[in-house]
Design brief:
Helix 1 packs parallel to helix 2 and helix 5 crosses helix 7. The protein has twelve helices and 13 strands. The chain has a six-stranded mixed beta sheet with strand order 8-13-12-9-10-11, sandwiched between helices. Strands 3-2-1-4-7 form a five-stranded mixed beta sheet, sandwiched between helices. It has a two-stranded antiparallel ribbon with strand order 5-6. It folds into two domains: 123 residues, ATPase, nucleotide binding domain (Nucleotidyltransferase, domain 5); 167 residues, Hexokinase, domain 1 (3-Layer(aba) Sandwich), CATH 3.40.367. It is globular and about 60 Å long. By secondary structure, the protein is α/β, with parallel strands linked by helices.
């Protein structure tokens, strides 16, 4: 099958083979979403490149794991480069058997197929007991829950990233007040994402009365890593601690027995997540802190897992 993992910044596409030992990604490519006028254009480009590379059979079945929620024929998401219509994409790409699934729902389906060595532990507890809460700060903030029901795995997608941002310290409250004055409802992904990190840094600059020096997540993280800008380092540290509190809240809400962090931003700030503020705030839940100490927390490199997840989702639907 043809699988795609489409986020707000990049689209990864690949040909996935089904085998007795799992799914295998063959020919694959990554594209910048902003370089294309539509999802259909990305799919057509990949199929042309696959044919040019000598792939003799281009599958008629395609599953696109994509950020957002499908509402009828249209996808609701404010972080994508273009609007998405399922019917129009099928027609323009020439793929009748085309399916859209939430990207983090698909990624959750991939979790049982990931080798243990790929998980990077953040806390003291280890393992991946169910239910697993999957969180992913990237261009937006993805969230999903992998659970077992009646002896079968199921995935519950979530739009937790759109939940209101909750402050836990006076500084965080100052940031929330600032953002509320600017935009009204402040969704959690306004801070817990790549663009959110920039928003957080710029908010600190406003509160400190200094002009911002950085305007992209990568350069901001590089400045924090290199010690060039104490305010950049403060923004990254503030993000990690605040995100830990948010992850702990969701772990309690969903009664999760383990937590996985994925998404593009996780890899960029992993060394900062390891420095302690994330786990400290994750565990700071009063009388339930002891419960959360038993919840393993792991970071996970995203890579091609969205493609595997799209294939795993399709296989689960096919089994009925």
């Amino acid at each position: 099958m043809l699988a795609a993992d489409v986020g707000g910044t990049y689209a990864r596409l690949g040909l996935v083979d089904f085998a007795d030992d799992g799914f295998h990604v063959g020919f694959h490519r990554r594209y910048e979403c902003a370089s294309f006028p539509s999802l259909a254009a990305v799919l057509c480009q990949f199929r042309r490149e696959a044919a040019d590379a000598g792939e003799r059979v281009i599958p008629d079945t395609c599953v696109v794991a994509i950020a957002g929620v499908l509402q009828g024929d249209h996808l609701l998401n404010g972080n994508l480069a273009w609007p998405v219509s399922l019917a129009a994409t099928r027609r323009e790409a020439g793929i009748a058997d085309l399916h859209l699934v939430n990207d983090f729902e698909a990624l959750a389906w991939a979790l049982p197929r990931i080798p243990p060595a790929q998980f990077q532990r953040l806390g003291d507890a280890d393992g991946l007991p169910l239910p697993v809460l999957l969180l992913g700060p990237g261009t937006g903030l993805g969230a999903a829950l992998l659970v077992e029901q009646g002896g079968r795995l199921i995935v519950q997608p979530s739009e937790a990233g759109q939940a209101a941002l909750a402050a836990g310290t006076p500084l965080e409250l100052d940031v929330v007040r600032l953002l509320q004055a600017r935009m009204g409802h402040v969704a959690s992904e306004r801070v817990f994402s790549g663009p959110g990190l920039v928003t957080l840094y710029q908010s600190l600059c406003t509160l400190r009365g200094v002009p911002p020096r950085w305007h992209a997540p990568a350069e901001l993280v590089a400045a924090a890593d290199g010690g060039e800008d104490p305010l950049a380092a403060e923004a990254v540290a503030l993000l990690c601690g605040w995100f830990g509190s948010f992850a702990g809240d969701l772990a309690l809400v969903f009664c999760a027995r383990s937590v996985c962090l994925a998404g593009g931003l996780t890899g960029h700030v992993l060394q900062h997540l390891r420095q302690g503020a994330f786990m400290q705030r994750f565990l700071d839940k009063g009388v339930l802190s002891g419960i959360l100490r038993q919840v393993p927390v792991h970071a996970l490199e995203h890579g091609d897992l969205g493609l595997i997840g799209a294939a795993a989702w399709f296989a689960a639907q096919s089994r009925g």
